[in-house]
Structures are given as C-alpha cells and as structure tokens.
C-alpha cells in the first residue's frame, strides 16, 4: 500500500513538473532571487556581530563604526525586500499559469470525454475536481515556490557561513539536523493518503449538494428533506473525520520540528559560550552564530509546513490528473471525410450495442431509411429508443455492425460534420446562462436578427419572448431560470428551426407544451420536415399518425414496422399500445 502511494506521488509530481517546465524563465529567475534573498539575509547577522564587537566596554562604544554598519544593514534590508517582492511575483506567475493550464486542459478533456464516462460519473464530483481540488493544488504549489527554494538556499548558506566562523559549532548543528528531518519525513509520509481521502470525500459531498440543489422541487414534493439531511450528515461527518485526521497529523509537524530546532539553538548557545570563554570566538561572533542557528532551523519549520501542504496539493492534483488522463472519445480517422450535402438516407446493418457487457440491449438491428422519410420510433420504456438516437448521433459507437449516412459509414466521417447534419430537440431541455438570442443562435452564431425572429415565430416562441423585459436581449439564468418548461422547450425548438439541417431527431419534443400550442408546433414541424429525414420518438402515439413509417421496438429489436393504419389492422403490439391510451383502468 505504501509503495503504491509513493509511486502515485512520484507520478503526480512528475506531471506537475512537466507543467512547471513550460515557465522555466520565471522559475530560473525565482531560484536566482531566492539565492540572492538568502545571501542578503545571511549577511545581516554578520553585520550585527560586527556591531556588537564595537561595544568594547561601558563608555567605550565606537559610534561612528556602528552608524556605518547600521547604514549598510539598511541597504541590505531594502535590497532583500525588493528581491523578495520580485521573487514572489515570479512565483505567482508560475503558479497561476500552471493552474490556468491544468484547468484549461481538464475542461478541454471534459468536452472530449466519451458519454460513457459522463453518464457513469457524479457531475458534482467532476465539478469538485475542477474547482475545489485545483484551488487546493494552487495553494500548495504557491506555498512551495514561496518557501521551498528560499528555505533550501538558506540552510545551505547558513551552514557555509557558520563553517567559516566555527567548525565545532557547525558540527554540532549538522549532527542534530537529521533528527528534525526524520520527524518531518515520518509525519509527511502518513499525510498523503489522508489528504487524498479528504479530497475524495469532499467531492462526494459536492456531488450530493449539487444533486439536491438541482432537484429541490422533487425533494420537497416528496417530503424527502429529512432523509436528505440524514444523508448529508453522514457525508459531512465522514468529511469531518477525514479532515480532522489529515489536519491533526499535518499540524503536529511544525511543533515537533520546532522542539528539535530549540535543542539545536540551545546546543549552539552552550558550546558557543564555552568557546567564547576560552577565547575561540568573540562575543559578536557568538551573537552571529545564535542568529544563524535560529535562521538555520527556521527553514526546517517552514519546509515541514510546505511538505504537508504539498501532500495535500499532490493528493488534489492527482484527482485532477486522473480526469485529464481519462481516455478521450476515439479520435476521427486521419482520412475521415466531411459530410456535406447529406441526402438524408440512413442505413443500419446488423448493429449490436450494449452499455454493459453482461446486459445485451440492441442485437442484430437492421433499418433502412429513405431520404425525406418521417420515421416514428415507439415502444415501452427501456426498449432502446434513446439508445438508437445515441447511435445515430454517434454519442456511442456500435459494438458491431455498420451505420451509414448518405451511403458513407459514420466511422469514416468526422463527428462534427455528422452532428451538423442533424437537428435535435430532446424532452429534457438545456439552456445556458446568457441572453435569449445567445441560446437560439447556439448552432448558427452568424445568424441575422431577421433569421432569429423568423425561427422564433416558426416555433411560436416570439410572442412570449416579446413580453420579456428586454425581449431577445433578456438574460436568463442557468437552465432557463424562471421560464416555464414549455417556454424552455419552445426556445430549444427555435434553435433547431434556425439551423434547418437535412435530418431531424425529435425526442418527445412537445411533451411540455400545451395542446393548443402543440397543434401549431406540429404544423410548423410538418412544414420543417418536408424533404428532411426525421426520426420522431413519442409516447403519445396520436402525434405520429402521419409518419411515413412507424418502427415498433421491444427489447432492442424492431418487432413491427409500417404505417399507422397498417399496424392497427395487424392488431399486434402497436395496436395494443395505441388502444391502451383510450382504455380506462378499472
């Protein structure tokens, strides 16, 4: 287990260093300034020692020499402050550039991940990785740059200067140093796994909160508040325990190293006093050595804190890199063609597909759709209607078999060009935060004002948009804000009517619209579908009576096929589905 944690830490650290390497100029500048800052800081105790040696005896003080030393100290302190300011600016530049790159790469990967990953992950946990975990990573990285380089240079520089003053005292310091390193290392090794568990639990809590906030109406409608609170308490208590353990172990690092460092300071004082009495060093040099002993031990305290923060940062970074490292959606073939001027013909030959290997869904599916046909897809819940749509749009790839559009296999064309030839309206609407106009022109950003209004009128959305405070410039919140479900669906319909692609997919597109508006929309759809291949998924069978062909699906297969009247005459599964709409349950 420990070997696995250590290996994971090394892998994560290697990835972090690859991001940092892009900004080697700022990194080199930071290292040089850290050395300069440490050198100037180490020179101050020398000046202090010289000033002490100018105090010879009561009434015998060399004020002129002390004034000169104080002037030099002031110059050194000002230079140190300037170097630290520039060094911190370089460190901030490195840190936030790295964080920007990580977030950009993570979001880019999120947009290219296969739907299998998105469907199988908690959305709140994904958000937590990209926001909370990256923020924690930034804090640890910034602290590392700010204190790590300066601390290491200070330790090495202090040892060198102390060696020039007194070899004996330097040996005492070096002998006691491993004790501090052992204490800090022992604790740091045990904090990584705790911080990782804390990060994972925080992600689970974020996912739960996101789920409850997004479905608050359902929670309250079914009086699920108490149960939700109990579940939250369990997650919250788990996070509290994880955080307490991680923070407790990390917090004892500093006091433990401070105790060891106090031993070093005391040893320098005792040995130095005997040397001063015997004439081996002056009182001023002893003063400098005590200052150096304090400066030498201080970086160990800071580095121990940095190591603890880095454990947290690496744990959080590991979760982000896990997301970035996920296998992206299979790339388009190098010789993939662009689907242009699609004629609307669609053919599925011996297609098989399942979401999980142990549960078959679609087996040996065959379908041939002519250009301009209206194809209705009906069947009970779970029969594969939505799965068929996912395969047509290539949100999922078939396990076997072949799907052709305009005679070209979909694997041989780019996904972008394939999806540009489909217009899609789903039962579940999606609107982003922005203006009404921005939501309508999503598929055609260069649309003119006249085109936008024409699409809105065709979808019967223009009348309610005109009543909004700022019309088409009205800003709506995420997922439509205060708009009704029907209004949101009308905007989604307008979005498709603006693009008018050669093929349409309507998945319960009018499920949230009142009957009167639905009649107008159906007429608009009928006009829009003229000459366009259309796939219509519907539960209300009365809306698909005019379809050219109706596919009746069950258990992933087509069991009946034909026009509305033909299927009714057959008296099969479709007829029972259709008649069930008018049968009252006793």
SSE blueprint and pairings:
Layout: H1 2-20, H2 24-53, E1 55-57, E2 60-61, H3 63-112, H4 115-120, H5 123-165, H6 167-189, H7 192-214, H8 216-221, H9 225-251, H10 253-278, H11 283-324, E3 346-353, E4 362-369, E5 374-378, H12 385-392, E6 400-405, E7 408-409, H13 415-420, E8 422-425, E9 434-435, H14 436-440, H15 449-458, H16 462-466, E10 475-476, H17 485-499, E11 503-507, H18 515-528, E12 533-537, E13 549-554, E14 557-562, H19 564-570, H20 573-580
Helix pairs in contact: 1-11, 2-3, 2-5, 2-11, 3-5, 3-11, 5-6, 5-7, 5-11, 6-10, 6-11, 7-9, 7-11, 10-11, 15-17
Provide a descriptive summary of the structure in words.
With 586 residues, the protein is an alpha/beta fold. The chain folds into three domains: 2-324, ABC transporter transmembrane region fold, CATH 1.20.1560; 332-421 and 503-586, P-loop containing nucleotide triphosphate hydrolases (Rossmann fold), CATH 3.40.50.300; 424-500, 3-Layer(aba) Sandwich (Rossmann fold). 64% of the residues lie in helices and 11% in strands. It contains 20 helices and 14 strands. It has helices spanning 2-20, 24-53, 63-112, 115-120, 123-165, 167-189, 192-214, 216-221, 225-251, 253-278, 283-324, 385-392, 415-420, 436-440, 449-458, 462-466, 485-499, 515-528, 564-570, 573-580; strands at 55-57, 60-61, 346-353, 362-369, 374-378, 400-405, 408-409, 422-425, 434-435, 475-476, 503-507, 533-537, 549-554, 557-562. The strands form four sheets. A six-stranded mixed beta sheet has the order 8-11-12-5-13-14, sandwiched between helices. Strands 4-3-6-7 form a four-stranded antiparallel beta sheet, with helices on one face. Strands 1-2 form a two-stranded antiparallel ribbon. Strand 6 and strand 7 form a beta hairpin. Helix 5 (123-165) packs antiparallel against helix 11 (283-324). The two termini are 62 Å apart.
């Amino acid at each position: 287990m420990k070997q696995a944690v250590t290996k994971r830490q090394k892998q994560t650290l290697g990835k972090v260093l690859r991001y940092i390497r892009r900004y080697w100029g700022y990194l080199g500048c930071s290292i040089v300034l850290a050395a300069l800052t440490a050198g100037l800081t180490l020179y101050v105790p020398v000046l202090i020692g010289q000033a002490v040696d100018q105090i010879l005896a009561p009434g015998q003080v060399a004020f002129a020499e002390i004034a000169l030393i104080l002037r030099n100290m002031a110059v050194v302190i000002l230079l140190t402050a300037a170097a630290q300011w520039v060094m911190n600016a370089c460190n901030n530049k490195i840190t936030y550039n790295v964080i920007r790159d990580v977030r950009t790469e993570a979001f880019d990967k999120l947009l290219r991940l296969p739907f299998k990953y998105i469907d199988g992950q908690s959305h709140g946990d994904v958000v937590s990785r990209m926001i909370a975990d990256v923020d924690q990573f930034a804090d640890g990285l910034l602290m590392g740059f700010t204190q790590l380089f300066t601390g290491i240079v200070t330790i090495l520089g202090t040892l060198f200067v102390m060696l020039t003053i007194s070899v004996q005292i330097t040996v005492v310091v070096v002998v006691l140093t491993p004790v501090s390193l052992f204490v800090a290392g022992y604790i740091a090794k045990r904090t990584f796994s705790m911080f990782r568990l804390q990060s994972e639990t925080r992600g689970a809590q974020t996912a739960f909160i996101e789920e409850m906030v997004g479905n608050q109406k359902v929670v309250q409608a079914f009086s699920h508040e108490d149960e939700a609170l109990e579940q939250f308490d369990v997650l919250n208590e788990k996070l509290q325990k994880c955080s307490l353990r991680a923070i407790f172990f990390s917090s004892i690092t500093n006091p433990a190293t401070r105790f060891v460092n106090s031993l070093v300071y005391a040893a320098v004082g005792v040995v130095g006093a005997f040397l001063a009495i015997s004439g081996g060093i002056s009182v001023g040099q002893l003063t400098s050595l005590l200052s150096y002993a304090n400066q030498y031990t201080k970086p160990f305290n800071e580095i121990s804190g940095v190591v603890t923060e880095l454990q947290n940062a690496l744990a959080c970074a590991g979760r982000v890199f896990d997301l970035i490292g996920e296998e992206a959606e299979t790339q388009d073939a190098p010789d993939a063609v662009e689907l242009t001027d699609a004629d609307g013909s669609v053919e599925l030959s011996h297609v098989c597909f399942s979401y999980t290997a142990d549960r078959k869904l679609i087996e040996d599916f065959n379908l041939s759709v002519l250009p301009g046909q209206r194809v209705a897809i009906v069947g009970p819940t779970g029969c594969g209607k939505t799965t068929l749509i996912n395969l047509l749009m290539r949100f999922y790839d078939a396990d076997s078999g072949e799907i052709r559009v305009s005679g070209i296999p979909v694997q041989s064309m780019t996904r972008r060009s394939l999806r540009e030839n489909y217009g899609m309206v789903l039962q579940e609407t999606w609107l982003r935060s922005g203006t009404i106009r921005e939501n309508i022109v999503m598929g055609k950003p260069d649309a003119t004002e006249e085109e936008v209004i024409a699409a809105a009128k065709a979808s019967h959305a223009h009348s309610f948009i005109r009543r909004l405070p700022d019309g088409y410039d009205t800003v709506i919140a995420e997922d439509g804000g205060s708009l009704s479900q029907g209004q949101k669906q009308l905007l989604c319909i307008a979005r498709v009517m603006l693009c008018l692609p050669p093929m349409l997919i309507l998945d319960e597109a009018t499920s949230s619209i009142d009957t009167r508006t639905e009649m107008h929309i159906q007429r608009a759809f009928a006009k829009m579908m003229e000459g366009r291949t259309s796939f219509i998924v519907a539960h209300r069978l009365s809306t698909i009576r005019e379809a050219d062909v109706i596919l009746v699906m069950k258990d992933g297969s087509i069991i009946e096929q034909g026009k509305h009247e033909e299927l009714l005459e057959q008296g099969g599964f479709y007829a029972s589905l259709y008649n069930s709409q008018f049968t009252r349950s006793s």
